[in-house]
Amino acid sequence: MKKKMSRSNKVIAFLLRNNDKIQILLFCLVLLILVINAVGNFEIKVDLMVALLICIAFQNMMLNNLIGNREAVPINDFYYYPSASLRDLLQTAKHDVYIIAVTCLNMNDFDEILKALTANGVKVNFLLLKSPGIKTMSEFSYSTPEQHDNAIKDNTAPGSAINRLLVSPHLKDARQENLIEVRLLDSICATSFVAVDLGLSGHGQIQCTYYQYHRNSHECPCILFDEKLERYNELQDRKAISANVELDSNTENWFEYYKSVVLDMWENGTPWTDWKK
Fold this sequence. Notes:
The protein is α+β, with helices and mostly antiparallel strands. The chain has an eight-stranded mixed sheet with strand order 1-7-6-5-2-3-4-8, with helices on both faces. It contains eleven helices and eight strands. The longest helix has 22 residues, at 19-40. α2 runs antiparallel to α3. Helix content is 47%, strand content 15%. It has helices at 7-17, 19-40, 46-66, 83-91, 111-119, 131-141, 145-151, 161-166, 172-176, 227-242, 254-267, and strands spanning 79-80, 96-100, 123-129, 180-185, 191-196, 205-210, 221-226, 270-272.
């Protein structure tokens, strides 16, 4: 499912992500050469200095030209839902986590990670579906009878996935300190979200998983939106527009779009704290 990037596009994407660092590195190399030449009385050829300066100029020209062809730079890309990447994403959280899903069936073994997060003061918010939504979504997305039977339990039932997770002794302190909150939504869930640091400006990331017909969540496509990358893209778009360059790509800030969706769903959820063993 994951679309492979060409080698040239990988290089372009790397340069765009690390443009500032590369420029600083090249500038430091120029300064270092000047210092070595002045202090050590070494004879540094002028053509070496010129080559470094040309590298800086060439990189700037290349990045400016790329603004007019943004679709050639696939910063975000689709991939299958991997638990490893979800773990990595959660472990980056410094302020808050929002998990919006049908039942949290795939997070039963995440209690240690959640314990580590809440021990550092990270607030973890779960938004799950009420019974009618669970029934509809399980009929739509779960492809095997076992998955269907396991997922169809009401989130308020003792045997539900969220209860099995939250009654873990690892999370006892987090529950008592109100660092874990659960809300229920009377709706369906076409997309699940794992969002980190929405309340920490400049650090937010949102993983979206798009549910598909008769496909379990690990078979569904995901995409990760990074706040820093989206802001960078917006800045480049504004530069291009001010220079009367016609953009090939959509200028929507998708991180801000999905952030508003996540927070809107959360605000419309009904608080629930009746964890049962």
